[in-house]
Design a protein that fits this description.
Blueprint (H helix, E strand, L loop, with lengths): L11 H11 L18 H19 L13 H13 L1 H4 L8 E2 L8 E12 L5 E11 L5 E2 L2 H12 L2 E2 L1 H16 L3 E10 H4 L10 E8 H4 L1 H10 L5
Parallel strand pairs: 2-5
Antiparallel strand pairs: 1-4, 2-3, 3-6, 6-7
Helix pairs in contact: 2-3, 5-6
């Protein structure tokens, strides 16, 4: 990858941003930017985020020098964002082994509930939920292991997300990997931006779905999929 020339001492976040802009690519909160991060730069980015987080704590008037509870908070928060809750932005997609549909399977398959964790793009508050995936394969569909659906979901959700967009991203990814006749995804989640702040409604949940191919065209297949999902909530 080619990067624009940067002066020595330029923050690593600026270098990464310049590469992305030179390639005319997006770097929204829910985009993966792993292709533009060079070896060793994630650790440098961790140091940079830690330093900025120390500034945030200072602006919140927290005495991190004398408060034993927060003296290492900036490092912990930086590590949490880059290597845990937002890791899906900074690492490449998990390796997925695909197998041909040798037995010509063409019956409805449902995977779930898959527990997913994310954070809303608006407030960086947690999103906790479950996903159900329905696949209607054909003889040309690539078959992937059940655990791989969970890995793909974790990778997509491991970014600041909006639930509606996250489900579409996951559907696009699975569609690309497997090429089924039909694909359906339902997600149910609690949003801490509603329960922890704002209206402080801890019981509300959001449920949304994406239907592709046969699930979109065949009402009977759609009803079968929805009826086989265990009672949500």
């Amino acid at each position: 990858m080619n990067s624009a020339p940067c002066e020595e001492g330029t923050p690593v976040s600026v270098k990464i941003r310049e590469r992305i802009q030179a390639a005319r690519k997006r770097f929204h909160a829910n985009d993966n930017i792993a292709d533009f991060i060079e070896p060793g730069e994630l650790e440098l980015l961790l140091d940079e985020v830690e330093a900025k987080m120390k500034g945030v704590l200072g602006s919140l008037v927290i005495d991190t020098e004398h408060d034993h509870n927060t003296d290492d908070t900036a490092r912990r928060v930086a590590k949490m964002y880059l290597k845990e809750v937002f890791q899906g932005r900074y690492v490449k997609a998990p390796p997925i082994t695909e197998f041909p549909n040798a037995e010509h399977l063409n019956e409805l398959m449902i995977v779930g509930p898959i527990t997913v964790r994310s954070a809303c793009s608006h407030h960086f508050c947690p999103i906790m939920g479950k996903i159900w995936i329905g696949v209607l394969p054909n003889e040309h569909t690539n078959v992937i292991g059940l655990s791989k659906y969970a890995r793909l979901a974790e990778w997509v959700m491991g970014r600041p997300q909006i639930q509606e967009e996250a489900v579409v991203q996951l559907a696009d990814l699975i569609q690309q990997k497997t090429q089924p006749d039909g694909l359906a995804i339902v997600m149910e989640a609690s949003h801490f931006c509603m329960g922890w702040r704002g209206v402080k409604d801890v019981d509300s949940k959001m449920i949304n779905s994406v239907m592709r191919g046969s699930f979109l065209k065949d009402a009977n297949l759609r009803r079968e999929f929805l009826s086989l999902i265990p009672q949500k909530g």
